[in-house]
Every structure is written in C-alpha cells, then in structure tokens.
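Below is a filled-in request sheet from our internal design queue. Each sheet records the structural input a requester submitted and the sequence that came back. We keep these sheets so that new team members can see what a complete request looks like end to end.

REQUESTER: design group, bay 2
PRIORITY: normal
MODE: inverse folding
CHAIN LENGTH: 384
BACKBONE (tokenized):
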C-alpha cells in the first residue's frame, strides 16, 4: 500500500492547531502562582484564544473560498509559530492573554479550511471517515499540547515549554507544505462578497443552525470540564502536579483510536440516533467525575472524551457534506459557533466554580448536554 501523503499532511495540520490551542490547560494552576491571579482570571488564557478563533473563523472560510485551500492553511501554520514562541517571554498575564488572542486569530485558517478540503477532495462516502481521521489527529494534538507543556513545565519551566511548542509547530508546518497536494476540486468564489452572501444563506438553514448549536455545546463542555478539572485535581485531597495533570490527558488518545470509526457507526446506526446515544454517554461520564476517586474521575473523563469526539466528528462532517455551495463559509460558521462555545465554556463555568466548585461546573455541563440533545432530536432529520 502506497503512503498517503494527503492523510499525513492533514494529520500534521490537525496536530499543529490543537497542540497550540490547548497547550496552557495543564499549567493553569502554575500560572495562578506565577502571575498572582485567580483561577477565573488565568482561565482567560483559554477564553482569549477561543474568542479569537470564533471571530476569525467565518472570514477565514471566505478568504479560502477566494484564495484556495492549501495556500491559506500553509500560511497560517507557519505564522502561528511566532506568537507561540513569544509566549515564552510574556512578562505578565495581560501580555500572555494578548499573545493567546493572536494565536487564536491564526488557527481557523488551519482547521476550518482543512475540513472543507476534506469535504471537497474526498467522495461523500469517504468524507465522514476522513473527517474521523482529522478528529483523531485533533484529539492527539489536544493531548500532546497539554502533556508536553505540563511535563516540560515541571522539568524546565513553562516558558521553555512554549518554545518547544513553537519548534514543533514550525516543523509540522514545513511537513504540511511538502506533503499536501494542491486542491483539485476547488471552485473559486468570484470575490469575498460572494462568499459572504453564501454565509447569509447558511444562516437561514435550520439544520445547519442546529448543527452550529451542537458545535457550540461540544467545545463549551470540553473547555468547561478540562479547564476546571485541573483546579479540582490540583487541590486537596488529590494535590496533582502539572506533570500529572498533563499526563491525565492521555485519555485523549482514546478519541484518537476511535474517531476514525465514526463513518462506520453512522452508516450502521444513523447519525441522529448515534449522536443522541453519545450525548447520553457524555452525561454519564460527567456525573462519574463527582465520585471522589481519581480512577473513577479519569474513567468519567475518558467516557466524555469518546462521546465528545464522536459528536464532533458527526456534526463537522454533516456540515461539510450538507453545505456543498460555499462549504468553506459553512464550516467557518460552524467553527465560529464551536469556539464561541469554547469561550463561554471557559468563562461561565468560572462563575459556577466560585459558587459551588466542581459540582456546580458539572451542573452547567449537564444543562448544556440537555440543550444539545434537544437540538438533535427536534431539528436533525431522521435519515441525516
């Protein structure tokens, strides 16, 4: 079997973007001490990045509809290594937050456009499977960013950890440029205005709007859980170090292994029933984290990871397959909703944390899962 250069390039891009996005999570308790800040203030390191992603995503799609897929992705991958390196020299929390915002601006041209590339360059029957590969690589990137930063922060300090992230990002960018062929089925929009008009058309589609809402909920819950669980586990009775907190994210590799089977699961059970079942599993996993036992908490988080990545793969591929005209802008809108959810998921549960700590955060997550289930049950067609 010949080596699949396209698949390798997509893996490089997914790993690069999600490594950068999630890198600070394992060291948030360390940053609380470094900058004499509160958990809610330090969690803005996640909010700043996800908010920037949300603001840029639809425009990244529109730009890619005019300039082409590979060109936009490659420029963003090379560019994001700069603010990543500069994080190592941030003198205060405000500077760190500003650099995280710049990072976020450069990420949508990678993953939003990447999903569009998959939807256009693979037949519909294979696009869901390939999206699963992308989600799998994204889950590995999320693990790697947290794990690498956490371990290196304990060994050589968090600043050197960000320099290592920058070097990895640049290496993956070079590999991507070499391996990914130019798109073959790209239909160029005549201008940015045409792409933006297609965006307005997508906002009138109830099924796409519901899917955007599901995307909002997916990252809301991921960010809420995997941000505030760090503060929960860093405190008594667990008292976990940054390295251990980073190592817990090895559970993301479960998503790496299972996400490629999304296409098979959808073909067998149907997209709508499968997602509803995964949402129920997600709720069960979240409730398990309330049991004050570290193995049980890790099990609960693992269930959340599997359910979340299956939901993400199903909803992302649904957008790419459904919106054949202006697909990049449709995916851009999905990514905007996804990362607005992440921004709210970093900030709103902070208020819950101040009121009732981890149990209050769990209650917020459970409420969002109920909203997501209602959207799927009421709006998605039975044969989706």
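RETURNED SEQUENCE:
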């Amino acid at each position: 079997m010949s080596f699949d250069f396209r698949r390798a390039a997509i893996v490089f891009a997914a790993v690069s973007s999600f490594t950068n996005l999630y890198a600070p999570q394992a060291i948030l308790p360390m940053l609380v001490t470094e900058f004499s800040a509160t958990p809610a203030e330090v969690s803005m390191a996640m909010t700043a990045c996800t908010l920037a992603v949300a603001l840029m995503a639809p425009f990244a799609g529109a730009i890619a509809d005019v300039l082409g897929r590979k060109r936009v992705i490659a420029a963003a991958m090379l560019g994001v290594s700069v603010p990543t390196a500069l994080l190592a020299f941030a003198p205060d929390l405000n500077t760190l937050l500003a650099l995280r915002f710049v990072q976020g601006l450069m990420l949508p041209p990678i993953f939003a456009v990447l999903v569009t590339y998959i939807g256009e360059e693979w037949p519909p029957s294979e696009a869901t499977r390939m999206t699963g590969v992308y989600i799998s690589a994204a889950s590995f990137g999320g693990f790697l960013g947290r794990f690498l930063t956490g371990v290196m922060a304990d060994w050589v300090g968090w600043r050197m950890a960000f320099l290592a992230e920058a070097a990895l990002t640049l290496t993956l960018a070079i590999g991507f440029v070499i391996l990914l062929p130019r798109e073959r089925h790209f239909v160029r929009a005549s201008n940015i205005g045409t792409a933006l008009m297609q965006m307005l058309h997508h906002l009138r589609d109830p099924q796409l709007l519901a899917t955007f809402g599901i995307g909002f909920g997916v990252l809301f819950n991921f960010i809420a859980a995997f941000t505030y669980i760090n503060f929960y586990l860093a405190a008594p009775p667990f008292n976990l170090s940054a390295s251990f907190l980073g190592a817990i994210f090895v559970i993301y590799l479960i998503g790496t292994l299972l996400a490629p089977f999304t296409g098979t699961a959808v073909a067998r059970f149907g997209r709508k029933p499968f997602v509803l079942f995964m949402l129920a599993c997600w709720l069960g996993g979240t409730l398990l984290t309330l049991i004050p036992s570290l193995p049980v908490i890790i099990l609960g988080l693992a269930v959340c990871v599997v359910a979340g990545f299956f939901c993400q793969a199903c909803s992302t591929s649904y957008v790419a397959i459904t919106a054949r005209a202006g697909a990049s802008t449709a995916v851009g809108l999905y990514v905007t909703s996804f990362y607005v959810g992440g921004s709210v998921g970093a900030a709103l549960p902070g208020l819950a944390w101040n009121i009732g700590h981890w149990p209050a955060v769990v209650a917020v997550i459970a409420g969002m899962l109920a909203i997501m289930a209602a959207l799927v049950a009421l709006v998605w067609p039975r044969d989706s």
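SHEET NOTES:
- The mean pLDDT is 85.
- The domain at 10-179+192-379 is CATH 1.20.1250.20 (Growth Hormone; Chain: A;).
FILED BY: M.R.
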